[in-house]
Amino acid sequence: DFLYALRASRGEWREAARAMDLCGRALAKAAIAQSSEGRGRDGATKTRVMDDIALAAEACRHALGQVDDPDRRYLLHRGEVVLEGDAARRAFRAGVLRDYARDPHSPDSAGDIVSSSTVDTIAALAGA
């Protein structure tokens, strides 16, 4: 993402994190919308979208970790506070869902994967 690169090159790590957080949220929202419209159900699209979501989440986590003052390692998004630990959990979940997208038992679209609950994901992997 251009904004991430620009902000990171200037040492503006919170702004870099914010750019990737917004990018990841936009990608997930678009994937869910495409899924509800019946689009984006081919394997290549699903893989590319999940790769992009995981990359955005990891870049956000990384950028927050680069903020010099540990007390400023957070983001605000529409009244929601995203702490460094929250960003790390999101990045981990996005990485797991990225791997799950490659499983033959995973849903057909990235939107279905992103919007599925943890219980649904575990049940699908267990073959239930």
Measure the end-to-end span. Answer: 38 Å
Give the class from helix and strand content and strand pairing.
mainly alpha
Low-confidence stretches: none
User: How many separate helices?
Assistant: 6
Task: Report the β-strand fraction as a percent range.
Answer: 5-15%
Our Rg estimate from Cα atoms comes to: 15 Å
Largest sheet: 2 strands, antiparallel
Spatial order of the strands forming the largest sheet: 1-2
What's the overall average pLDDT, rounded? 91
Structural features, described:
With 128 residues, the chain is mainly alpha-helical. It is built from six helices and two strands; from the N terminus they run αααββααα. It has helices at residues 2-9, 13-36, 43-66, 84-101, 110-115, 118-126, and strands at 74-77, 80-83. The chain has a two-stranded antiparallel ribbon. α2 runs antiparallel to α3 (43-66).
